[in-house]
Fold this protein.
Amino acid sequence: MNSPARKLGPRDRLIAALDDGLRTLFASPSASRPTPGQPQSEIEDPAARRHAAGLMRVNHAGEVCAQALYSGQALVARDRRTRAVLEVAAAEERDHLAWCETRLNELDSRPSFLSPVWFAGSFALGVASGLAGDRWSLGFLVETERQVEHHLDSHLQQLPDQDLRSRAVVAQMREDEIRHGESGKEAGGAALPLVVRYAMKATATVMTRTAYWV
C-alpha cells in the first residue's frame, strides 16, 4: 500500500529551490514543449545575425531571472494556491529558457556570462516580495509579466524579418507571459505602488542593456 505524499516543509522547499538554481545555471535546460518555429541557422547579414543573438541572449537572461524570481516567491508563499500559480508559471518559463538556449546555439552564440548575478538578484527579489505577503507577491508577478510583455513586443519589432525562428519563439513566450499575468490577477494579486513599478523597470533596463553584450 502506497503511503500518502509527504507535504513539503520549509527546509524541503529550500533544498528544492537550491536544486532549481543549480539546474538553471549549470545544466542544459529541457523543455516540455517543442521549440516554436522551424530550425533556422542561417541569417545572411552578419550584423543582423549578431543583433538577433544579442536579443535572444537578453531573453535568455530574462528567463534566468524568471526562474529565480518565482523560485524565491514560492519558497516563502503562505497559501498553497499562490504557490501553485508560481510553480505553473515557473514550469513554462523553463520551456522559454530551453527555447532561448536552443536559438542561441543555432545562432552560434551563448548565454550571458552574468547569469549567476541575474539569478542571485532575482531570487532575493522573489523572497522579499513573497515575505511582503501573497497578494503583493502575486502583484509582483503580474507587473513582471506586464513589463516582459512590452519588452517582447519591442523585440518582435527589432528582430530581423528573416529570423522566423526567433520570432516564433518570442511570439509564443509573449502568449505565455500574458497568461501568467492573468493567472496572478485571478489569484488576487494586488496593484503595486508606482514607485515599485518604476524601480522594477529601471532594474530590468540595466539587465537588458548589459546582457545584450555580456
User: Anything to note?
Assistant: The two ends are 54 Å apart (CA to CA). The chain has seven helices and no strands. Confidence is low (pLDDT under 50) at residues 1-6.
